[in-house]
């Protein structure tokens, strides 16, 4: 009979490509992992790995085993979550990771449909760096990751990117800064104090490219991993800051900042990243459907309107 503990160790090593790193993640010694893999290969009477330099590579049999292991542990995770939470409350858990670069209000709008399904759903939301969220997704501790960039293929994580929509970026500032930089936008931003998302946010590179194309050289006075923290500094008048155009009213009412202008060519895309190629989790399906139908229509309409603040 198949030893599922050995299969679990194999699954980790196959995904990571290293016995040492898998042992660190599982809090075991490399010798323990190696011994268990050898036992698994003996019981199956087939070789699952071949060593290429310092890296392990799956054999054809190993690739088949990994495919089945993925399905086995996904089902096991669903069973565990169902028994732990559903039995007590009748609610199914929806485990979501949100990248810290994704604005909180956008995350709310994306996830809110999951709370209004016929089947009771308990939302468990975790915010973190994308790399850590992807690692949690890889070991089935998350059902979904909401991100501003797709899953990088070089991470070697089996996951699928589901596009939720896109949104044009705009620049905002407290009334004094808005009055100063709105005329002749975007060229008025040359040498202006600017707050930016941190380097790893997808908007960061897009904005830098846009500045170059517009021949603008702003004074970057701060970079922020957390979009909420950037808006807090913007509210204090430290500098002009970018944010998705669909947040225009929220930024005005909650942060006292006014729209300066739209960066027409800076478009941020949002993704739902799952381990499912075909979405089946009812909450994930609801998130995807609502985002495509509702959330990003406002941004497109804004650019198509006669809003006098639109310059670029």
UniProtKB/TrEMBL annotation:
<keyword id="KW-0805">Transcription regulation</keyword>
<feature type="domain" description="HTH lysR-type">
    <location>
        <begin position="2"/>
        <end position="59"/>
    </location>
</feature>
<comment type="similarity">
    <text>Belongs to the LysR transcriptional regulatory family.</text>
</comment>
<dbReference type="InterPro" id="IPR000847">
    <property type="entry name" value="LysR_HTH_N"/>
</dbReference>
<dbReference type="InterPro" id="IPR005119">
    <property type="entry name" value="LysR_subst-bd"/>
</dbReference>
<dbReference type="Pfam" id="PF00126">
    <property type="entry name" value="HTH_1"/>
</dbReference>
<protein>
    <submittedName>
        <fullName>Transcriptional activator NhaR</fullName>
    </submittedName>
</protein>
<dbReference type="Pfam" id="PF03466">
    <property type="entry name" value="LysR_substrate"/>
</dbReference>
<dbReference type="InterPro" id="IPR036390">
    <property type="entry name" value="WH_DNA-bd_sf"/>
</dbReference>
<dbReference type="InterPro" id="IPR036388">
    <property type="entry name" value="WH-like_DNA-bd_sf"/>
</dbReference>
<keyword id="KW-0804">Transcription</keyword>
<keyword id="KW-0010">Activator</keyword>
<keyword id="KW-0238">DNA-binding</keyword>
């Amino acid at each position: 009979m198949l030893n599922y503990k050995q299969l679990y160790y194999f699954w980790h090593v196959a995904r990571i490509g290293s016995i040492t790193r898998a042992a660190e993640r599982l809090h075991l010694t490399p010798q323990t992992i190696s011994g268990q893999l050898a036992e698994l290969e003996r019981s199956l009477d087939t070789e699952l790995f071949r060593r290429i330099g310092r890296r392990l590579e799956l054999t054809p049999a190993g690739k088949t085993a990994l495919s089945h292991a993925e399905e086995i542990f996904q089902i096991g995770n669903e069973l565990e979550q169902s028994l732990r939470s559903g039995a007590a409350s009748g609610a199914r858990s929806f485990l979501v990771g949100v990248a810290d670069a994704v604005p909180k209000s956008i995350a709310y709008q994306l996830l809110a449909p999951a709370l209004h399904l016929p089947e009771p759903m308990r939302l468990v939301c975790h915010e973190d760096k994308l790399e850590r969220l992807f690692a949690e997704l890889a070991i089935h501790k998350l059902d979904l990751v909401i991100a501003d960039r797709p899953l990088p293929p070089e991470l070697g994580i089996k996951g699928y990117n589901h596009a939720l929509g896109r949104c044009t970026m705009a620049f905002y500032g407290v009334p004094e800064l808005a009055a100063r930089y709105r005329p002749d936008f975007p060229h008025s931003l040359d040498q202006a104090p600017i707050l930016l998302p941190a380097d790893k946010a997808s908007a960061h590179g897009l904005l830098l490219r846009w500045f170059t194309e517009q021949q603008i050289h702003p004074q970057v006075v701060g970079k922020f991993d957390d979009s909420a923290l950037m808006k807090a500094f913007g509210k204090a008048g430290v500098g002009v800051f970018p944010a998705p155009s669909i947040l225009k009213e929220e930024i005005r009412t909650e942060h006292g900042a006014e729209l300066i202008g739209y960066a027409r060519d800076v478009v941020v895309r949002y993704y739902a990243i799952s381990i499912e190629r075909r979405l089946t989790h009812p909450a994930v399906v609801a998130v995807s459907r609502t985002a495509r139908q509702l959330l990003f229509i406002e941004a497109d309409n804004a650019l198509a309107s006669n809003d006098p603040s639109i310059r670029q």
